[in-house]
Amino acid sequence: MGYSTLDIENGLKIDRERLRVWTSKGFVAPSIPSPGRGRKAEFTLLDVYCVALFSKLVGTFGMSRKVAAEFVDGFKAREQATGKHGENVSHILFRLETVDGESKIRTMTFGEPGEWAMTLSDGRWGMYDPEGRVPFRPFDIPGFMGDSFDDDYDGLQIINFKKIRQVVRAAFPG
Question: 163 burial class (0-12, 13-18, 19+ CB within 10 angstroms)?
Fold first, then answer.
């Protein structure tokens, strides 16, 4: 089953012109080709996840559309290769770095349900359970906290993909 741009606009509450610009510039794209003249291409469920992820990266994280599109392309390629199509990702860890004045994706790691992720909360490193079963657990390991860990985790950010999936599933229950 395919989804139209109107379905996505309504389901994800994305402004029509904004989605038109994103698709016309190739930041997000439908995977189901147009079946003929006068008919539009349609989005798969994975494409809808990609649009929701792109919107989150640009809106919440303030990522440039170019970098967000590269990020989403990496996500889409991984999901197509695994055959899971966004259904088994619980979180995405990522870090950007600036090279020659331009942001680049330095790290992108995908977590499966039940995995734990390291994250920084209120200046403390700890374990984060993306499934929400256990609250954040800080830990103190000598040489691991803050800048003393050679900036290896500086700027690390996490996306709770489970929430993105919940929004998409609520909008597109079929």
Answer: middle
Q: Which amino acid is at 152?
A: D
Is the Cα torsion angle 19, 21, 23, 28 positive or negative in sign? negative
Give kind and range of the element (H or E) at residue 19.
helix 16-24
Mean pLDDT by 10 residues, the chain (174 residues): 91 95 95 80 94 93 90 89 81 78 76 56 53 52 43 66 90 86
Per-residue tokens: 81: 């290769």
Burial class, 33, CB count within 10 angstroms (exposed 0-12 / middle 13-18 / buried 19+): exposed
- Could you say which DSSP state residue 4 is in? -
Residues in contact with 140: Cβ distance below 8 Å, sequence separation at least 6, in sequence order? none
